[in-house]
Design goal:
Elements lengths: L1 E11 L5 H19 L2 E6 L6 E10 L2 H17 L3 E10 L1
Length: 93
């Protein structure tokens, strides 16, 4: 069994309130969960208006499948158009 997690930090464009930030983050979380079946949650920067930090984890029997899934998740977040990723930290168990 392979577990790979990552922490993705990003800037949110055109976010002028916490309400707007939460709607962007919830949209990303819902789309990502539905498309890739990963565990995902906001983990830091709760009260920072234009920054988001998501924790994402994948479990599989194959390391390559986990890595490919996380790469696809990152691509999906980047393709969102409302955010710009500025750091990614990966950890494998």
């Amino acid at each position: 069994m392979v577990i790979i997690g990552m922490k993705v930090s990003f800037l949110i464009y055109h976010s002028y309130s916490l309400k707007n930030k939460r709607s962007v983050i919830k949209s990303i979380i819902k789309k990502t969960q539905n498309k890739f079946n990963v565990s995902i949650s906001e983990v830091e920067a709760y009260d920072t208006i234009n920054q988001g930090v998501l924790g994402i984890a994948v479990v599989s029997n194959n390391r390559i499948v986990c890595q490919q899934t996380l790469d696809q998740v990152i691509q999906e977040i980047e393709d969102n158009g409302e955010v710009e990723i500025h750091s990614i930290e990966r950890e494998e168990l």
